[in-house]
Structure formats: C-alpha cells, structure tokens
Amino acid sequence: MLQKAASLSRLGTESAFEVLARAQALAAQGKDIINLGIGQPDFRTPDNIVEAGIKALRDGHHGYTPANGIPALREAVAADLHKRHGAEVNPDNVIVVPGGKPTMFFAVLIFGEPGAEIMYPNPGFPIYESVINYSGATPVPFALKEENGFAFDADDLLSRITPQTRLIIINSPANPTGGVTPKDQIDKLVSGLADHPHVALLSDEIYSQMLYDGREHVSLLQYPEIRDRLIMLDGWSKTYAMTGWRLGYAVWPADLVADATRLCINDHSCVNAAAQYAGLAALVGPQDAVRDMVASFDTRRKIIVDELNALPGFRCADAAGAFYAFPNIEGTGLTSREAQDKFLSEAGIATVSGTSFGKWGEGYVRFSYANSAENIREALRRIREVL
Ligand code: PLP
What we know:
By secondary structure, the protein is of the alpha/beta class. The protein has two domains: 6-44 and 288-386, Aspartate Aminotransferase, domain 1 (Alpha-Beta Complex), CATH 3.90.1150; 63-284, Aspartate Aminotransferase, domain 2 (3-Layer(aba) Sandwich). 40% of the residues lie in helices and 13% in strands. It contains twelve helices and twelve strands. It has helices spanning 15-28, 47-58, 71-85, 101-111, 126-135, 154-159, 183-193, 254-267, 273-284, 288-309, 336-347, 373-386; strands at residues 34-35, 94-97, 117-122, 138-143, 165-171, 200-204, 230-235, 248-251, 324-325, 349-350, 352-353, 365-368. The chain has a seven-stranded mixed sheet with strand order 2-8-7-6-5-3-4, sandwiched between helices. It has a three-stranded antiparallel sheet with strand order 9-12-11. The model has no long low-confidence stretch (mean pLDDT 97). The structure holds pyridoxal-5'-phosphate.
C-alpha cells in the first residue's frame, strides 16, 4: 500500500477544469455543447505575439533563462505597470512565472503553516482556499455579497485580522463574480492595514484590463505605504488570450524576492524562453487587439446580463469586470450544483456551480461570457427551455 502525505488530502481543485473535461467528453459523443464554463478568452493570441514566440525558437532561445525571467521582459513589465498604473516598479522585484497560479501558491507557501491564518474571498478563485488548506494554515474566508456588487467590505476584512493573520488575498476585478471593488474600500483597507504591520497582502489583478462602463482599475501598486508587504499578481493569460502559453508575473516586496526566486528554482527553474519573448512582444507591441477583445467582452456582457435577468428564477447583478456573470438562481428552486448538472446534461450548456468557488457561492452559477454573442443567445435560449 502506497503511503501518501496527509497534506495531499487537503489540496482542493478548480472544478472549471472538471466541467471542461465533462463538456469535452459529451462533445466527443456528438452532443452539441456550448461552453460557458471555462474562464479563458475565446480569441487566438494576437499574431504579432505568436510570431515573436516562433522567432524566439528560430533564433535559438532554447535554453534556461534566469529563474526570475529575462531582464528585457522584467523591464517591460515595470514599464507597462508605470504606463497603466503610474507605479514605480523596480524590474528586480518582478518575477516571471508560468501563469497566474504559481504566484498564489508561492505566496501561500511563504506564509502558510499550522497556526497561521490566511484570509481570502468567498466566493472566490478556488485555488486560494485549496492552497491555504494544503499549507496547513487556517483559511479565514470573507464574504463577497451580491448587495455590495460582490466588492469586499474593508471594515469586515479589517475586523477579521488577528495576531495570527499573515496574509490577505484580494481579487478585483473578481472571478467568479465579475465584481469590482471601488476605490473607497481599497483606500480604507490600505489605511486600516497601518495598524497591522504583520499582515502581507496578495492582490490578484489578473483581470486588471477588463473593466466596463468607464470604470478604472485601482492597482494596489498605487499605494506606496504598503509596497513593502504587497505581492501584486498579473499576467498575460487573460489580457492577451495566452492561457496556454503559461506566463504570468508578480511584483514582490524586496524582502520576499529571494524567497520567491528560490521557490521558482525548486519548482520550475524558469518559464520557457519562447513564451517569455512572446510576452515581451505583447507588452511592447500595439495594444489594439486588447482593446478589441475587451470591447467584444463588453458587448457580450450586456447581452448575457440582460438575458439572464429575463430567465425565470434568475437575478443577475451588473457584471462590472472580468468576463463572468454570476446570477442568483435561488428562484429556480435548484441548488447551484443541480443547476450546473441540469444545464449541462439537458441543455448542453457548460457553466460552473457557485459552490465550486466556496460555500457562500450557493445560490449562484458562474457563466463565462468568453464565447460568441450568437452562442450566448443560443445557450440562454436552451436554458430557458429546460427551466
Ligand atoms: N487569478 C484568477 C482570479 C483567475 O481567475 C485565474 C484563472 O482563471 C488565475 C489567477 C490564473 O491564471 P493562469 O491561467 O495564468 O494561471
């Protein structure tokens, strides 16, 4: 009998990948499936980025790179953050990693151990809770509520801090809710943290370029008073439709750069070189493709929010950012999981149960609108039929 580590049983998962596998299996059996389950842009990576990746391979960039990323890419990240957020970032504090996820794993491994508390949003990206549990730390969820537009409430967060709290994870614009936390709540959180100098902050800003109706992204990098304890996560996956390239980064506080780099060396050595050159082209090249993708998401967002609100038993809050709508489905009499299963098996529509994002996701279902307007309309027509 193999003896596995007990910690493994505490590791959770991201159910969107399971839904994707089930949807693909049904499609392989000839079923007509529309996928509103997985959170990835339905666009191809823009051509100039693909060409830069191919060129890097042709030019012989086949070996290891520095563990924290090629210097030109880290400089381009710093310049991009200055352009977008007006933030001064030292390229030495930028660590390039394979996607958004490694940064959260490393941040939690750096702070998490039995006795430590780590706070995270619920409903929220499921990997936060999973890796906190894995680390042995105590997960301390804070609720994101529909009546607040799924923004966090800074007073609520601050009131949960204890001497054991080591890290707070925030995410705006948010997965799975599409919620965007307004600046006044972020201001309040940052000023409240002055009383808790032992607490670090991981700000997951992977959807920083996807806000609608004139909203502007507020980056935590814009608060110099917490830069010595801020880990700011962003990347290429969503913005440049590069989920499969596995490329992301974080800006780390000076004190943690060596620890995070050591984790990189132990874990993956470096990100594959060609992907890094592609990421460089993405940042320094034209940004029209990003604007076009965000404009398409916005069009689809309006369609899906309107149509979800017209479904019997559904109520859908304004989706302010990212590419998710998170309707309340309590009026259908179905649990979230029942709704997810019914929509997939009876209507051929993949969605993700709100409970896949934490227990407070009960009563909600996540719809990714990273799909064509035509497919979104057809998906909701079919759901109406089975309801
Ligand atoms: N953070 C959030 C909030 C996400 O929704 C996702 C992906 O869905 C990620 C991070 C991870 O992105 P990546 O695919 O680059 O690891």
